[in-house]
């Protein structure tokens, strides 16, 4: 999320080489994209209940002075404030990424003229407009300066995820430069959770994720599945383009929802150019497109800025097995003698390590050499510590050794006594009225 605040009359405020290897070798034949739907205007996602994020962002912002001399403070997206040590603690990072040994990375960012930045952005082979201005420059400076080691990390991590992103984007004929949208969304962390509950590499909110076919329940969260979330994001981006017809507005709508973009267009009198629409956009969205442009620049021209990509080891090839019974990842890890953290990394969508196969068939990703072992040893896997790890009982016994009934209590509380008294008084009044009525009748008969 990006928040922007205007402060008036404040002056002088200072505030890996791509190898194209897929870590998980995802098998796309197991995933059939859902047919396109008409977009229902999503709920205001800013109203979602806030939750704790996986990483606690450090408060950070930049300042930009406009033509009137006013200073605009722009907060960075959460992914631009994640601590690099936290990212490096992820299984994939500490297992497959390492600091480059043959590249001397300096901490100083070389200086270039605005004309050089403009020329580089212009020469990028993109469909989307990569315009230059002071705000874009400040985001580029942050990526290439203070965040240059994070850029080194993300360049290494792109080898895991970018082939998956490109495949999904290509399937829906979406510009491939959008493969860097997760860089500003999640810093390429599939387990990232934002302050407002957006989850996964593509930071889907709960409602939008379910709208695009991602299952979310207590045990499964497919927003964290790199493959399924990438296809859902590509379809969402394509549908947004059918609404707005401009890719800058598309990624702005991806951030704040199409409803907010439509409101901004209405307030501006029908303006549909992002930079002309800028003052009417929600505060947290005004820095989103500049951050996206800066991310594309950083992932393309890192070498010119002396940034070395982290070295990427060749990952294990993987395959999937489909289960129709509940199974715990610990059962698989113990019987097949596998690293439980590796299994969690390969299957991030299973929130509590339980694969609920009895509900419907689910796929489990394993190293390719272990898929046949799983099939051969599945009986042993299912039975291993089943009562300890899968504690939800299908049938429960009621303890009827001790009678549950109690003797009638004679003594009543104050309320019961008061109620009894009121009822008796009503009955007394009714009886008295009835006697008076009978007496009157007798008198009439005597007459």
Explain what the structure shows.
The protein has 447 residues and is mainly α. The protein is built from 18 helices and 9 strands. It has helices at residues 84-88, 91-96, 114-123, 134-144, 148-171, 181-186, 206-211, 226-244, 247-256, 258-267, 274-277, 288-300, 329-336, 340-346, 368-376, 378-383, 386-389, 414-446; strands at residues 4-7, 61-65, 71-75, 97-98, 311-312, 318-323, 326-328, 354-356, 362-367. The protein has a 3-stranded antiparallel beta sheet, covered by helices on one side. Strands 4-5 form a two-stranded antiparallel sheet. The protein is flat and about 110 Å long. The N and C termini lie far apart (95 Å).
Supply the key terms.
43% helix, 3-stranded antiparallel beta sheet, disordered N terminus, two-stranded antiparallel sheet, mainly alpha
- Strand fraction band? 5-15%
Number of helices: 18
Please bin the fraction of helical residues.
40-55%
Number of strands: 9
Task: Determine the structural class based on helices, strands and strand pairing.
Answer: mainly alpha
Strand order of the largest sheet: 1-3-2
Rg over alpha carbons: 32 Å
**Termini separation (Å)?**
95 Å
User: Mean pLDDT, nearest integer?
Assistant: 82
Give the overall form.
flat
The major β-sheet equals:
3 strands, antiparallel
Give the low-confidence spans: 1-59
Sequence of secondary-structure elements: EEEHHEHHHHHHHHHHEEEHHEEHHHH
